[in-house]
Amino acid sequence: MRTRGDIECWLTDMDGVLVHENTPIAGASELLAQWRSEGTPFLVLTNNSIFTPRDLSARLRASGLVVPESSIWTSALATADFLKSQMPGGSAFVIGEAGLTTALHEAGFIMTETTPDYVVVGETRNYSFEAITKAIRFIRGGARFIATNPDATGPSTEGVLPATGAIAALITKATGKEPYIVGKPNPMMFRSALNRIGAHSENTGMIGDRMDTDIVAGIEAGLHTVLVMTGISDQREIERYPFRPDEILGSVAELVRGEPLESDLADGEEGLAAGI
Predict the structure, then answer these.
(1) GO molecular function of the protein, one example (predicted)?
(2) SS3 at position 228
(3) Which of 215, 225, 213, 222 is nearest to 191 (CA)?
(4) Fewest beta carbons within 10 Å, which of 29, 140, 164, 194?
(5) Which residues have CB under 8 Å from 217's CB, separation 6+?
(6) Cβ neighbours of residue 133 closer than 8 Å, sequence gap 6 or more
(7) Considering the entire predicted model, what is its pTM?
(8) How far is residue 253's CA from residue 25's CA, in Å, rounded to a whole number?
(9) pLDDT exceeds 70 at position 269
């Protein structure tokens, strides 16, 4: 049976694992420093497609976390990587921000409002009725429908906001077409991340705070999965699902050198008790 000691590369979610509302989570800075000093290949993953890796690296640095932009993998990058493999030099009508448009440009795609090959919907704080209407018409006219991630809502200081999944659902209702979703929980995002750092599933771990995205996608991608309790999951949330992570920890602080390695779960409760 694979244990944490077998892991040579790491993928980790960002929000709820490393930071919470721009405040670093205990142990995150030390874990990142440990990976850098030991030369451990790692990527920070996020379903948020608004920001470029450079933007996110700067935001994390402002929170006290050092993550090079080359170590950040977004759903926008995964989407661009996927579309490049499907139709090199293709065209797209995009609903999204710089994180998505920049990734598609760098992948060789053309942004157009004339018979695009794809309609790509990502995260934005400026959803436009006009743009959504165009997307619906393009899809009804034959354009392929892609969404960067399935999240229906996103956070803000005032409360939840409609996110990619909600807008995609509106477009689906108007077109009868379901989007292909590239981001988590599609294990394709993890596979493209593994390719990015030259890692293999047999010796890579995934750290996340959500059972319905991070953990299920990690399991389906064949990774060693670690659920941390600093995000949205609690024991009741864990029990809702028929699958279990390999480990349940209180926070990433328990992954910093010096913590015990033998915390693989036998039945779920044991690991949770040890991790909190």
Answers:
(1) hydrolase activity
(2) strand
(3) 222
(4) 140
(5) 184, 185, 186, 187, 189, 190, 206
(6) none
(7) 0.88
(8) 9
(9) no
For position 74, what pLDDT does the model report?
97
Q: How many residues are given for the chain?
A: 276
Residue 180 pLDDT > 50: yes
Six token digits for residue 44? 């920070």
Residue at token pair 């850098």: 36
Q: Could you tell me which residues are beta bridge partners of residue 162?
A: 153
CA distances from 144 to 115, 118, 147, 228 (A): 11, 5, 10, 36
Residue 178 tokens, joined: 């379901």
Residue 173 has pLDDT above 50, yes or no: yes
Q: Which residues are catalytic?
A: 13, 15
Average pLDDT of the chain, as a whole number: 91
Question: What are the C-alpha distances in Å from 210 to residues 28, 103, 214, 217?
Answer: 17, 26, 5, 10
Token pair, residue 190, equals 């993890």
pLDDT tens per residue, range 43-57: 999 999 999 999 999
- Amino acid 192: pLDDT: 94
pLDDT digits (tens, 9 = 90+) for 93-152: 999 999 999 999 999 999 999 999 999 999 998 899 999 999 999 999 999 999 999 999
The 10 Å Cβ neighbour count of residue 200 is 11
